[in-house]
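Operator note (shift B, R.M.): manual run for MATE family efflux transporter requested after the automated queue skipped it. Running by hand, logging everything below so the morning shift can see what happened. Input copied straight from the record, untouched. If output looks odd, do not overwrite the archive copy; leave it for review.
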Amino acid sequence: MASGRQHLFLNGSIPRALFNLAVPIVLANILQAGYQLTDAFWVGRLGAAAVAAVSISMPVTFLVIAMGAGLSVAGATLTAQYMGAGRHDMVNHVAAQTLLMITVTSIILAALGVLLSPYLLTLLGVTPQVYDGALGFMRVSFIGVIFVFIFAMFQSLMRGVGQTRIPLFIVLGTVILNFALDPLLIFGYGSFPAFGVKGAALATLATQSIAAVIGLWVFLRGQHGIHLAWSGFKPDFAYIKKAFFLGFPCSVELSTRGLGLMLMTFLIASFGTLTLAAYGIGANVLQVITIPAMGLSMAVSTLVGQNIGAGNIQRAARITHLGTLYGFGALTLVGMLAYLIAPQIVAFFVPNDADVIREGAHFIRIMCLAWGGIGIQLTIVSAFRASGNMMNAMVIALISQWMIQFPLAYILSNHTALGADGLWWSFPITNILIAIISIAWFARGGWKQTRITEQDKQALEVIDKGWSDEGYR
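Run finished. Output pasted below as returned.
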């Protein structure tokens, strides 16, 4: 079965390979979003202070997760390339060492988070009514980061070898369990105590720890493409150095995107409650429509990585071209549909507020016709990562958030007659410009020259070559 899958990835129909990989990833991503939806559903019944406690904590824990996510991407990239090259020994070595790195990193970040939580909440200006709930939720969430990291690493490594169904089944089971645990831990039952808003974090901690343990068990059994032994966890500092320098730009990229979103929220909040509510709904819609695009981009990443590892550079390029067309076409069609039913979409979230429905629909209609640009960007960035050119993805994120969108939103909203509309127009303009930049950069072809799995290359040489090839020097 594994050999048949590898033949499909390296020699078979590209559309079929993309479909086989993307569908389980998309379903897993949708289910993963169920954690947030479940927490929001039950916590919302505790009142505004509880909702605020979760809202203030989530961006902070997201940034911490983003800091370690680069190691996960580096491990998945190396795994895919070694799998394509037929180096199963190195696939197992990379998996063990990356799991070791991610576990140590997550323990350090979790400990710092637990210790610094009170200071972070004070810095964020949390009100006394929200403070206690936010502190409990944040501290438990930081402890949970350890298991979130481990399971995310499991998903990335399994995706690297082309196995996407096992993570899907694990996510399905844990989401169902989380839905059952949330009301029990939040509200209590009989003699079982109620933990309030902290209960939502405890439920996620419990389910994510189970997922992490199952993932490790799957690796130790070795029946799904990766076979680990406890001896493989002995530190290999040469690999750790390589993976750190490879993954660091990706961590910067994801952190940059998180900070950029937070800054945009502050800017939008200055225009009042109506504008902020419209943005909140539009942002939720945007998050939903990017789920299939993210699934497609992850499938592209796996196929590009494996084909580069096998030396099939031109096939890797064709995979990216086809994935880009699919991403652009699918999100453009979704955008056209969203334009037609924008008021109904907003009314699903806020059925009884005509002003929010009007403004939210206006925001969606301004940005939705450029959603195809998101599909282009996500696909090309995933190909850059799969080839080992993490810096390209990092620079694209920096340009997108800090050189285009935020400055554009500020200037158009504060220094033109557009007002709040200037905020909305920054979204489609950014998507179009970044899509053009991504296409032009990919067409240069420098990504084809980076071979991170060659044994005679050291991490710093890979990074240095990436800078030189892409014209930074």
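Quick read of the result: DSSP finds 16 helices and no strands in the chain. Residues 12-235 form one domain.
Leaving this for review. - R.M.
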